Amino acid sequence: MVTPPTSAIADVLQLRGLTGWLSPPLVPIRRAPGVQGSARTVRLAAGPGPAGLKPLHRLLDEDLHGRVIVIAGAEAAAGAVWGEILTLSARRAGAAGAVIEGGVRDVEAARRLGLPLWALNEATAGPGPLVHVASVGTPVEIAGVPVADGDTIVMDHGGVVVATDPEILADAAAYAKAEEKVVAALREGATLAEAYRHKADFVAELRR
């Protein structure tokens, strides 16, 4: 199945009374179309820890093909927890993308290296000593949205979402096709009311 747009996934989640979109608060550092992978979770916490950020560095030596690195709690750092060195390491490990709940730097390098990357903000300084890896591979939260290791993460030009239920992705694919029919009808001269029936009928079916 072709990966549906994040906007369609988010709309289907809304129709079901659920959440799952991580943008906002995350903003694009390097956009890419149709990225889908399974989460590899890391949770950071404030304060010094015995291993500091070394567990994150060890994770980047894993085989990360098909994985999206999800770092929660990175806003606890004084500055950026992610930059050119980690971007290059993630690309070398085969990561499909990275989602950082905190600051990143060396954004031109990230764009040049081609790693899809979303974060809270850009930062100039490094992370500082008062942050550490609290856990790897455990459930985390970003802006109140739970993410478990292995959950499906979809990233595209429009945003980032977590889709834990395969049925959500299937419905989102059908929802996106209904929107394409609306656009096609408008281009053929239909009124918005006429064209929108393609989507309205599908939305009504989802709500049932």
Overall description:
Helix 1 crosses helix 5 and helix 3 runs parallel beside helix 4 (107-113). The protein is an alpha/beta fold. The strands form two sheets. Strands 1, 2, 3, 4, 5, 6, 7, 10 and 11 form a nine-stranded mixed β-sheet that branches. Strands 8-9 form a two-stranded antiparallel ribbon. The two termini are 24 Å apart. The mean pLDDT is 94. The chain is elongated, with a radius of gyration of 19 Å. The protein contains six helices and eleven strands. 34% of the residues lie in helices and 29% in strands. It has two domains: 6-164, Ribonuclease E inhibitor RraA/RraA-like (Glucose Oxidase, domain 1), CATH 3.50.30.40; 167-207.
SSE topology sketch:
Blueprint (H helix, E strand, L loop, with lengths): L5 H10 L11 E4 L4 E12 L7 H6 L7 E6 L7 E3 L1 H10 L3 E8 L2 H7 L3 E6 L8 E6 L3 E3 L2 E3 L4 E5 L2 E5 L2 H22 L4 H16 L1
Parallel strand pairs: 2-3, 3-5, 4-5, 5-6
Antiparallel strand pairs: 1-6, 2-7, 2-10, 8-9, 10-11
Helix pairs in contact: 1-5, 3-4, 5-6
